[in-house]
Specification:
The chain is 23% helix and 17% strand.
Length: 316
């Protein structure tokens, strides 16, 4: 991954925006329209929700005037970025695959996120972490965001939305089926067959609503653990823990504003906004935190490289 121009080994594949097959949030053109119709001048007419050619901005809310002047041309150094970033926000993308997620964010909604985690565990980084991605409203300036490929969580009355994506195979085991309207889904691993880590949908409450959701794939769990560990190492103000209620379990609703302002660590989109439920009731918070802490003990220091030392191709 890339943080303030420095390359960091995460122990799991990361496809950068500059790599073949990557997703580039710096581009102003729509990625998935016809090329002749992709320019900004055409796009702002065709898609009314696109109001600016940029899908990201400056972390201005956490910078002094002098710091803004220092970095506005791209002049971040890692030490300054480490002072400013103290939250990691986890989302499910509700799109099902990273390709569909990028299309929705970049081509339709005019938004962005630093990382996308696909069904096969491939991580895509769309922006240098110095950028303020637009993914989590009040936490954008201080956070890093990741969108996990997962069709999402639904009330029991809307369970048909899950049945389209999660279907039994000939042996009766549930597998992920990308709907035909989405083509091959863009998953990077040839012939990949995705299965949720738990065979049955998880039922749980978020924001006081009962929801159903299938778990992530094992490949997603493994990649997310390593990425989280690396981010907590590079950004020590991100504490490797999640918001807890009085009993020590994960808080399943928005945090009070004053607590959110003080909070440093890993959190879900639903901890920031009352109208969000991601990453949903199936998300395994203890699996993530325990795994990331174990990985940090095993790999006590994330490895940084200078840009010139990196070979062309897929980053790690």
């Amino acid at each position: 991954m890339v943080a303030a121009g420095q390359f960091v080994h995460t122990g799991t594949p990361v496809v950068l925006w500059m790599d073949p097959g990557g997703y580039d949030a710096y581009r102003v053109e729509r990625r998935f329209s016809l090329f002749d119709e992709s320019s900004w001048e055409t796009s702002k007419v065709a898609v009314k929700s696109l109001t600016t050619p940029n899908r990201y901005g400056l972390r201005g809310n956490v910078l002094s005037h002098d710091e803004v002047e220092r970095v506005r041309g791209g002049g971040w150094d890692l030490s300054l970025l480490q002072e400013k970033v103290d939250q990691l926000v986890i989302h499910f993308d509700a799109s099902g695959t990273s390709r569909q997620c990028f299309q929705a964010l970049h081509d339709v909604r005019g938004l962005s996120v630093h990382f996308m985690l696909d069904l096969d565990g491939t991580i895509y980084q769309t922006l240098d972490l110095k950028e303020r991605a637009w993914h989590a409203t009040s936490s954008n300036s201080r956070s890093i965001g990741i969108e996990i490929a997962n069709v999402g969580a639904y009330p029991p009355a809307q369970a048909e939305n899950l049945r389209e994506w999660y279907q039994p195979d000939a042996s009766g085991q549930v597998r992920i089926v990308v709907p035909a309207r989405l083509g091959d889904g863009g998953v990077r691993t040839p012939g990949f067959v995705g299965r949720p880590a738990q065979p049955e949908p998880v039922v749980g409450a978020v924001q006081g609503m009962e929801l159903l959701q299938y778990d992530l794939t094992p490949q997603q769990h493994r990649a997310l653990i390593k990425l989280t560990a690396s981010l907590c190492q590079v950004f020590p103000r991100i504490q490797c823990d999640y918001p807890r209620d009085g009993s020590g379990k994960v808080l399943t609703k928005k945090m009070p504003d004053e607590e959110l302002q003080r909070y440093r660590g890993i959190l879900g989109h639903f901890h920031i906004q009352t109208d969000k439920v991601d990453p949903g009731p199936a998300f395994q918070w203890d699996r993530l935190v325990d795994g990331a802490r174990e990985w940090m003990q095993r790999e006590p220091q994330a490895v940084l490289e200078k840009p010139a030392s990196r070979l062309m191709g897929v980053g790690h």
